[in-house]
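ingest -> fold -> write
write: protein_1
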Amino acid sequence: MTKPLELLTPAKINLFLRITGRRPDGYHELDSLFLPISLFDRIVIDADDGAAARAVSIRCNWPELPLDDHNLAARAARLFMEDRGLHWRVAIDLHKEIPAGAGLGGGSSDAAGVLRLMARLCGIEAAALIPLALRLGADVPFFLDPRPARVGGIGERIAYLDRDCSLDMAIGVPPVAVPTAEIYRHLERHQWSGPGPAVLPQMLDATGVTQDLLINDLESVAVARYPQIGEIKVLLQDQPAAAAAMMSGSGGAVFALFPTAARAQAAAKAAALRMPGARFFAAHVV
């Protein structure tokens, strides 16, 4: 039995998410800016390399989360072993704080976290696992090395940013899980906005990021099907000192940018009082 390994896996927001095309296999290609934020799940892995057959077990603090291969973390462990020809017994302890079905990448981050820990056990660089990560989901490769990055293709093209990304935000999550596949299924060709700006602001902070940068081609589709998303956006935009606001990913989380962490925290508290059924919190780019 190896010594248990532990990792914090961050959520992310998409500062913009623009659809640029669709491949013959049905996957949409995108141009997006991924920013990891200060909201984390925690993963602990215990692996026994003396097992007679592959086995993966998982426990989680959220009882509603599936514990079989519908859970991306469990699938990641099994896929890694199959790819490497390993026969381990792997126990995963997953403590979740990132809301599910919110466009914050929690499941993808957990899957990448499992891959990173198992790669560490095998002495493998996480960057070598991008093809494997893509088999689990389009966002998973980013979380193998979660740093601010411009992401293209279906998630496999990752260009890390060489500039400051000091953004504070309040985030609201409606009390519904938004299925990614459903949103993409209802996205129409005329809603694609194409590639984003070739040159990004030199400073991605409260002064350098304006509303015209924050375009999410999936937002109108998600709001039409889940009106609570639009209600949260308006609520956050109404908070004092709120700047740009947008839905993240395929929804339903909405973030609004603020000039300081204190302003973001105050906005999250005020919004929670006005919409008690939703979850609100403050975060910053990490």
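write: protein_2
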Amino acid sequence: MSELINNREYRQKLLKQLIMELHEGKSVEEVKERFAKLIEGVSPSEISAMENALIREGLPVSEVQRLCDVHAAVFKGSIEQIHMAEKAEDNPGHPVFTFKAENRALERLISKTIRPLLNDLKDNNNDENMQKLKEALDKLWEVDRHYLRKENLLFPFMEKYDIVAPPKVMWGVDDEIRADIKEAKRLVAENADISLVSEAVEKAVSRVEEMIFKEENILFPMVLETLDEDEWLKIAKESDSIGYCLYTPTKEWKPVRVNVEKKVQSEGEKPASEGYVKFESGILSFHEIEALLNTLPIDITFVDKDGIVKYFSMGKERIFPRTKAVIGRKVHNCHPPASVHVVEKIVEDLQSGKKEHEDFWIKKGDIYVLIRYFTVKDKNGEFMGILEVSQNIAPIQAIT
């Protein structure tokens, strides 16, 4: 572990040197090769963590922003995105699907309309072509809504996970692109010299293309390995209020859910919503069982043998927030992709019988949380599922 930390600190020191060299006037090409060697085998998340640490040390965001072009030059055509077996982002309506669909529309606008118009204007600088260019730039300005959704819906979740540097850097670049498009629109509106118009428009569309590349090869892989399904659902639901760019989602994205009641019935069990349940050690009504479980000073979550979240208790002071939307979901979809492998390892060890329970403990402010996972089996020893029990043990530790 110490070796890993030292390597990270060493890479961070070199990263800072590269940024300072860019500040002193070195070109992207001059530092590109050294940057590539520095981040070889490093995920986008670790790169962002290093940049974030540099900003916390006091390095201005504007200096870290100089790395954006180096990122693009190094990653182009080689960065490996992290894919899950079933990628939610490939489904229409998912925020990343929408962002990418907008990017494709922007690329078509640039390649099929704006650049051909620029070429025509060099030979036929007339009012008709200039009006067409003005209309095309008005369409290009819709990228503002693309950036607004990214900045106001996506970036806050990144900051929640302490990914601070990339949003600040990218927001700064977004604002520069907005300014470039405005300048191009101004020159076209004033019917300026065609050479000035051509230069300004080409600069604006090139910056848009660069940002498309940075989003799809750096930003999106980073957030896809960080945000969980519920967070993507919130982003999807709030996107309409901001609007879209050259593309409007035609479908609402709905994460896969299992109907737990139908699943129970198909397995030959009947839910006892009324009446009594007879146990070996007594009899309780449905309402008594529910009240009893919600009164326990612990949080309980049950995942059945198929990995489906089937139940959680609803105590007055939950340690971890839960919504009813988790019922019927696969347990690995309830965690950020970056930690899914930990969850899957726990499930595998308990289901296989390698372990009977697994314990973790974390500190959250004033509370000290003990999280325990137990194998649940029937009388015949058949695996039925996994019970997660979370408890704030700080008050227990304080007992004298």
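write: annotation protein_2
The chain has three domains: 2-75, 88-238, 297-397.
Residues 280 and 379 are 12 Å apart (CA to CA).
pipeline exit 0
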